[in-house]
Amino acid sequence: AQRVTQPEKLLSVFKGAPVELKCNYSYSGSPELFWYVQYSRQRLQLLLRHISRESIKGFTADLNKGETSFHLKKPFAQEEDSAMYYCALRRNSGNTPLVFGKGTRLSVIA
Amino acid sequence: NAGVMQNPRHLVRRRGQEARLRCSPMKGHSHVYWYRQLPEEGLKFMVYLQKENIIDESGMPKERFSAEFPKEGPSILRIQQVVRGDSAAYFCASSPGHPSEQYFGPGTRLTVT
After folding, report:
1. Which residues are bridge partners to A35 per DSSP?
2. Which one of A17, B84, B88, B104 counts the least CB within 10 Å of its CB?
3. Which B positions 69-108 lie with beta carbon below 8 A of chain A?
4. How far, in Å, CA of A49 to CA of A33, rounded?
5. pLDDT tens figures, B38-77
6. CA B109 to each of CA A23, A63, A109, B88: distance values in angstroms, whole numbers, following the listed order
7. Radius of gyration of chain B (CA)
8. What is the pLDDT of residue B73?
9. Which residues contact A98 (CB under 8 A, 6 or more apart)?
10. Are the CB atoms for B105 and B3 separated by under 8 Å?
11. Measured between alpha carbons, how far is B25 from B6 in angstroms, rounded to an integer?
12. Which long-range contacts (CB under 8 A, 24 or more apart) does B12-16 make?
């Protein structure tokens, strides 16, 4: 079975501090991992996918297959980063559904 | 492109009534996914449809729930004889016809009184 775990329900950091949102997954095959973000009053949108290896809005995430983790990191948090962040997994075999974690609410304090 | 549209945004139903939730995918997208989010939970997959076909309904409750995506018109998620436990946010996502990002709608918040 596939499962995504985000251990922190809420994470508060000061502006300018580093941020790490944790995500661990369980899946026996080779998954595709994503981070989605939902800003206040906006719809869920894709932030990162591991196969792109991009940095979006200063965020990066590296897939660690040994630790089955896909933690989201940013060196210096900004107030506009405050949002709900969801880690998601998809079986790497086509247009399959996403499996989501419960989400972490990031609050960046000025 | 207006993005994925869902209506209504909020729906209130009494126990025993029917709820119909609509999802219009992005232009050119033929794949639709429905997810449900209960309070304090992540989004949980319900059903995956392509035009006129149900591809995967493994997340759909066996009773009272059904979904369709006709050749013309929006995808419909139908919940018959709603109960309080059906109160949740229902999200629709669409994608084009190859492994790709899923684009989400704003969701429909269903409240059963």
Report:
1. A48, A87
2. B84
3. 91, 93, 95, 97-102, 104-107
4. 6
5. 988 889 999 999 988 999 999 999 999 999 999 999 999 9
6. 27, 33, 29, 6
7. 13
8. 93
9. A34, A88, A89, A90, B33, B35, B43, B45, B93, B102
10. yes
11. 9
12. B12/B110, B12/B111, B12/B112, B12/B113, B13/B82, B13/B110, B13/B111, B13/B112, B13/B113, B14/B82, B14/B112, B14/B113, B15/B82, B15/B83, B15/B84, B15/B112, B15/B113, B16/B81, B16/B82
Question: For residue A93, what pLDDT is reported?
Answer: 66
Substitution target from B5, B7, B40, B43 for chain A, most A beta carbons within 10 A: B43
B34 to chain A: which residues are within 8 Å by CB? none
Quick one: pLDDT at residue B98? Answer: 66
For tokens 């016809």, what's the residue? Answer: B97
Torsion angles phi and psi, residue B98, rounded to 5: -140, 160
Residue type, A80: E
